Amino acid sequence: MQLPAVIVALALSVLLSGCAGMLKAQQQKEVEQAPPLPTLHQYMGQLAAALGEHSRPLKPGATVAVTSFYLADQLGNAVASNQGSGLSTQVQESLISYVTQMGLEVVEFRLQRTLTLSDRADNLLNRDIALLRERHKFDLALTGTISESHDHYTINARLITMLDSRTASAATISVPKAVLWGNEKAQMRDGKLHRGQY
Predict the structure, then answer these.
(1) Where is the FlgO domain (predicted)?
(2) Is residue 5 domain-shared with residue 64, that is, in the same domain?
(3) S-S: 154 plus which of 61, 91, 123, 147, CB 3.0-4.6 Å?
(4) Is the Cβ–Cβ distance between 146 and 71 less than 8 Å?
(5) Which residues contact 111 (CB under 8 A, 6 or more apart)?
(6) Containing structural domain, residue 4
(7) What mean pLDDT is predicted for residues 157-184?
(8) At 149, which CATH number?
(9) Would you state the pLDDT for residue 84?
(10) Same structural domain for residues 10 and 101?
């Protein structure tokens, strides 16, 4: 009488483990088939398009300077530094590309007077005011802030007129952290160990 109960229990155990294996295989297949997330550069394209779509009319030939994006709660103190080169820098550089492609005349205010050469690189851009070619005047500034939450960054951008400090356009986009860091279970970021969801 006990032998059939053991056989039934074994059969149920085998059946349940088979179902669990099939479920895990199905979940893995869904992960593999999920479309890849857009890149940060593509997200910045969406942000630039939103800025252009909701902008007040700008004067023909208006010039714009694209500045660094700071952490919203630390304005002037810390740019958002991630992945070595910095999230702030990536946002700024992508927006420079997109705003130029949209037809605005971007002023490269980081241009220095002469070309600098080293063993491994050559450079015309610099952030040292003493080395810059000239003080530039521009009609608009594209600037903004970055706010960090548990699983995403919120990037707020504003196109501001320099003459009267009014906002000509504003747009916001949320960028999942997975775009920057991937889906690894544990990663080193800025010298700290971060664990993902298990």
Answers:
(1) 46-179
(2) no
(3) 147
(4) yes
(5) 124, 125, 132, 133
(6) 1-34
(7) 86
(8) 3.40.50.10610
(9) 33
(10) no
